[in-house]
Structure formats: C-alpha cells, structure tokens
Amino acid sequence: MTASAPITQDVMTLPRKEPEGGKINLVGLTRERMRELLIEHGTPEKQAKMRVGQIWQWIYQWGKRDFADMTNLAKAYRAQLAETFEIRIPEVVSKQVSTDGTRKYLVRINGGHEVEVVYIPEDDRGTLCISSQVGCTLTCSFCHTGTQKLVRNLTPAEIVGQVMMARDDLEEWPVPGAPKEETRLLSNIVLMGMGEPLYNFDNVRDAMKIAMDPEGISLSRRRITLSTSGVVPEIARTAEEIGCLLAISFHATTNETRDVLVPINKRWNIDELLQALADYPKASNSERITFEYVMLDGVNDTDEDAHRLIDHIKRYNIPAKINLIPFNEWPGAPYKRSSNNRIHAFANIIYQAGYASPIRKTRGEDIMAACGQLKSATERARKSRKQIEAEAGMK
Ligand code: SAH
Ligand code: SF4
C-alpha cells in the first residue's frame, strides 16, 4: 500500500460540546461519555451507570426530547438535568414526498449547514439513506455530491439524529409498555447519502453503535449497510468496530477507468481493494459484500467489463452480489445512463456466472432523491437566490 497523505481536504469536525453558555447535547454520546458528563454535573457516581441506562432508553427507545417526560427519574433530578443538558437532533427544513412514496428531507445541522436524508418504503422493509458529511472531499466524476466543496464531517448526534428525525416523521416511536413491533417502517439504514463514511470513521461508528444498541434504536447490524468508495485501511476496522454490512462503489473493472470514475483508486487500486474485501472478516455467504456498479453509457458497460468484474471477484473468492445502478443524471453531468438493454445484458452475464445482479430501482426521481443527486436542488436554489440578490443590488 502506498502511504502518503489520504485524499481529504478541509475536513472540519465540530467539537462535541456546544460553545460556552449553550447546553450539552446528550444525543450521540457514547454511554461512557454520558456517564462522565452526568457525574461532572452532579449525578452521584454510584448512580451514574443506572441513570445513563434510563436516560438512554428515554432518548433512543421512546423518542423523548424533554427531561420532564422521564417519569422513572425523580422530579428534582429531571429539573437538574434540564438545566445543563438538552436532547437535540437536526431540524427538518423541508420534506418532499415522491409519487412512489419516497420521502426526501432537508435537515439543518449546527452552523446552518444542510444535508439530505431519504426514506425509501418497500413491501418488506423501509430503508433510510443517511449522510455522513456535508459534501464530500472525494471527486468521483459521475457523482453530484463530489462536485460540492466539503464543508464538514457530521457529528455522531447529527448522524444518529437523522434516524431519530425520520422516526418522528414516520410516527414510529413505540409507546412505553407496548410489545415490540415485528416489522418496522424504518427497518434498515444505508450510509449512502452525502459523504464518504470511512473518512468520518469515529463519528459514524459511534452513531451506528447507538443505532444497533438493544436499548437504543435497536436495529440489527445486518440491517445497516455502509457504502464506501474504497478507503482500504478503514475496511477492516469497519468489520471490527461496527460489524455492519459493506457495500463498495466499484464502478469500473480496469485501473485506468476506475482512476477516472473513482479517483481514490489512484491511492488504493483495484487489487488492493479486492484484497481488503477478501480479508473482510464478516463476509460470508449470508453476509455478502455488495459491489455497486453505476451503468455509464460507453464508459464501463461492455460485455468485457461484465466478464472482468466476475474474474476479479472470483480471483479473490469474495462472497458478493452485484448491484447495478442505472446512472442518475444531474445538470451538467459528463455521462449518460446505459440503455435498458445494455443494463440487462450486463446483468445477465453476471447472473449466468452465479452471482445475484439486481438492478437498483430508481426511487424518488421526481424529487431528485436518487443516488448521487443529493443536495443538488438546494444548492441550485441557493445559487439562484444569490444571483437574484446580486442582480437586485446592481439595480
Ligand atoms: N461515498 C460513499 C457513499 C455515498 S454514494 C460511496 O461512494 O460509496 C452512494 C452510492 O451512490 C455510491 O455507490 C455512489 O457511487 C453512487 N452514486 C453516486 N452518484 C451517482 C449517480 N449520479 N448515479 C447513480 N449512482 C451514483
Ligand atoms: Fe463522495 Fe461517494 Fe460521491 Fe465519490 S460517490 S464523490 S465518495 S459521495
């Protein structure tokens, strides 16, 4: 592996505490950190562990935001907590609902930045696509997020807060005492929104730990999928420290083409990536690695590409399924979507070789909620608003 500086620029992480004078947000803290803070602010040390458990359940299991609702805590203690702490998640700025039921939310985080979150209902599940960064430092040439300047990493509160926001909107918080629901509206999480999750590893890990915590959001690790463009050194850590399923933005079968489509390939090439996947400790037939492959007309969609893709996966003996993604066009995009016939021919070669090759259904197209289109509409709106203001000023 070549060891120079990683391909990241201008990544800022906000401190987890709000500035002086503000209250401390309890959302997104690890149990240990919450315990330390409770003790620091007057909770007797002997009680602290139990209090963390109680507060944790109120926040993540029952969706409460007000200490006054935490009825198994003494009234005076609830008031004491409310003086120092708060329970705060990102604020919903707008919500759009597609004709196919897909919901796209624009949420505002600290500093006035905005990220998008997409909820995709299906027959047997409901998937929430969440963001890990504002923008992305990487510059994949087919991805609209990649054309935006990264502003910053999201905090654990902002990451898990997206899930809590969606549960609010879906009105899915259970009522205390009621039996656990078997099927949930929000049953799966995919880290496929804006940003490269493995360049914000610690915050993504802390947030997903809460999502998986049986006393927290309580989703199984098998219902969480992290998608990465291929940050090789962090792939093994993903298995060890998060344990979720893995998806890889593969997208090309030669280094020459992948260098252009997914430039992180210049740092960790196809063989280095495949080796990391072959070593992924969680990979098995029941927990296959998803290879995401965007279908770009005349760029990566030939029969030879399909055969080479299979050869790569076989050479490294990786338990895999291949998810073909019809390219979602965005204004000014330098590529076109492959034809349906081409996509089906490509899928068929993969299927004949013995691998699942689903073609990803494009959801929420009418509200620009599809993969790789996020944030575009608001960016455009903002730019034009600015333009309008500039013009108005000139007059
Ligand atoms: N940064 C991570 C996760 C976010 S992107 C990653 O790259 O994996 C989620 C998926 O959408 C990736 O597979 C990405 O390559 C794909 N994608 C990006 N832009 C797209 C577009 N315009 N059309 C289709 N898929 C796109
Ligand atoms: Fe970033 Fe993923 Fe888009 Fe590449 S595809 S620019 S890694 S969000």
TrEMBL record:
InterPro entries: Aldolase_TIM, Methyltransferase_A, RlmN_N, RNA_MTrfase_RlmN, rRNA_lsu_MTrfase_RlmN/Cfr, rSAM, rSAM_sf
Additional note from the record: Reaction proceeds by a ping-pong mechanism involving intermediate methylation of a conserved cysteine residue.
Keyword Lipid metabolism annotated: no
Occurrences of domain Radical SAM core (ranges): 122-366
Single GO biological process annotation from the record: methylation
Cofactor binding notes: Binds 1 [4Fe-4S] cluster. The cluster is coordinated with 3 cysteines and an exchangeable S-adenosyl-L-methionine.
Catalytic reaction annotation: adenosine(2503) in 23S rRNA + 2 reduced [2Fe-2S]-[ferredoxin] + 2 S-adenosyl-L-methionine = 2-methyladenosine(2503) in 23S rRNA + 5'-deoxyadenosine + L-methionine + 2 oxidized [2Fe-2S]-[ferredoxin] + S-adenosyl-L-homocysteine; adenosine(37) in tRNA + 2 reduced [2Fe-2S]-[ferredoxin] + 2 S-adenosyl-L-methionine = 2-methyladenosine(37) in tRNA + 5'-deoxyadenosine + L-methionine + 2 oxidized [2Fe-2S]-[ferredoxin] + S-adenosyl-L-homocysteine
Binding site for [4Fe-4S] cluster: C136, C140, C143
CDD domains registered for this protein in UniProt: Radical_SAM
Subcellular localization: Cytoplasm
Recorded family membership: Belongs to the radical SAM superfamily. RlmN family.
Cofactor(s) essential for the protein: [4Fe-4S] cluster
Protein name per its UniProtKB record: Dual-specificity RNA methyltransferase RlmN
UniProt KW keywords: 4Fe-4S, Cytoplasm, Disulfide bond, Iron, Iron-sulfur, Metal-binding, Methyltransferase, rRNA processing, S-adenosyl-L-methionine, Transferase, tRNA processing
SUPFAM superfamilies: Radical SAM enzymes
Annotated Pfam families: Radical_SAM, RlmN_N
Predominant location category: cytoplasm
